[in-house]
Amino acid sequence: MITGKAKLAGVIGHPVSHSLSPVLHNYWLKRYGIDGAYVPLPVAPGAFETAIRGLQAAGFRGANVTIPHKEAAASIADAVDPLARIAGSVNTLVFREDGTIHGSSTDGMGYVASLEAEGVSLADLASRGSALLLGAGGAARSIATSLMEQGVSVILSNRTGERADALARELAAAWQSHMNKAAPSLTTIPWDSWETALGDVSLLVNTTSLGMQGGPAPDWKPDLAHSPTHLVVSDIVYVPRETPFLRAATARRLKTVGGLGMLLHQARPGFRAWFGTEAEVDAATVEHVLAALKQR
Ligand code: ATR
Predict the structure, then answer these.
(1) Which of 45, 68, 60 is nearest to 101 (CA)?
(2) Taking 90 as the threshold, does the pLDDT of residue 181 lie above it?
(3) What angle do CA 11, 12, 18 make, to 5 degrees?
(4) What pTM was computed for the model?
């Protein structure tokens, strides 16, 4: 039930109608019997600051922020987590009672949590080799940052090699200025050579839209013949739930982790901050979100 005392939050984006966050948060609100609501907030690019001040004035507890506002969210926040500073974007805003705004980036953390939820040990990954990330966009940036924070060496490979090189340079510089510990190794390799460079890799992550239903190459299925047997293969694409990439890994008996977990786990820190409850990502949660996905 939503009463006059309901706790309020939402997701700001442009467009925002594709976001699954309202489905997820309202499912958790109902399940935990919380007097609250989480709404989609379509906000045009020029109106971000006006919207944020309005939401603060209206008593919202905070908001998730998605494309194209993630950089603006980093600028408007009074305090930003070091990892979000390095990742260069903020996806979770918490409005504090003193009027200040706290910003964090939960995508990378959500990714790491999704690995752990599938029984993958980050310490094992770090000791067995590097993480090879395919892609050099925003998702690669967040995931690379969080893996490095866990002590995992990262290799970036992107079709447009200069983008991977530029990202590696930026991440290394940002790490220097925002973290008080040494960065694990961060290197790049050409796109046409990653398939044969898997020998020393313990985690392979697709952060591109390759393999996505309706994306640039839905049938994308690289050659995994050079994989070590302990390689963990993960995909941030979650439609379809099992991409051809993950199927190819399963066929080689490699451990796989799909993209839905990251989507669900990245939502937990915001839910905790706004609604005061630790939300669980369990089979019922996955079922609920999958049912919503099927209706699209
Ligand atoms: P994000 O959504 O993570 O911010 P993006 O900027 O949309 O990312 O980039 C998508 C990623 O998919 C990029 O790394 C892109 O490679 P380029 O930098 O070379 O464009 C990658 N990508 C998209 N289509 C691709 C294709 N057909 N082959 C290889 N990589 C592709």
Answers:
(1) 60
(2) no
(3) 70
(4) 0.95
Average pLDDT over residues 129-158: 97
Alpha helix positions (H), 106-222: 107-117, 122-128, 138-149, 161-178
Question: For ligand 1, which residues put their CB under 6 angstroms from it?
Answer: 135-139, 158-160, 163, 207-210, 216-217
pLDDT of residue 88: 87
Question: Does residue 43 register a pLDDT over 90?
Answer: yes
| Cβ atoms of residues 161 and 188 within 8 Å | yes
Answer yes or no: is pLDDT of 1 > 90: no
Question: How many angstroms does the Cα of residue 117 sit away from the middle of ligand 1?
Answer: 27
264 touches 24 (CB < 8 A): yes
CA of 139 to the centre of ligand 1 (A): 10
HSE-CB for 191 with a 13 A CA cutoff: 13
Sign for the pseudo-dihedral over CA of 115, 116, 122, 128:
negative
Residue nearest to atom 14 of ligand 1 (CA): 135
Residue 18 pLDDT grade (very low, low, confident, very high; cuts 50, 70, 90): very high
Ligand 1 nearest atom to the CA of residue 159, by list position: 19
Q: How far is the CA of 159 from the centre of ligand 1 (A)?
A: 7
Q: Can you say how many angstroms the Cα of residue 231 is from the centroid of all Cα atoms in its chain? A: 21
Query: Distance (Å, rounded) from C-alpha 148 to C-alpha 154?
Result: 7
CA–CA gap between residue 55 and residue 59 (Å, rounded): 6
Tell me the per-residue pLDDT of 256-277, one tens digit each, with 9 for 90 and over. Answer: 999 999 999 999 999 999 999 9
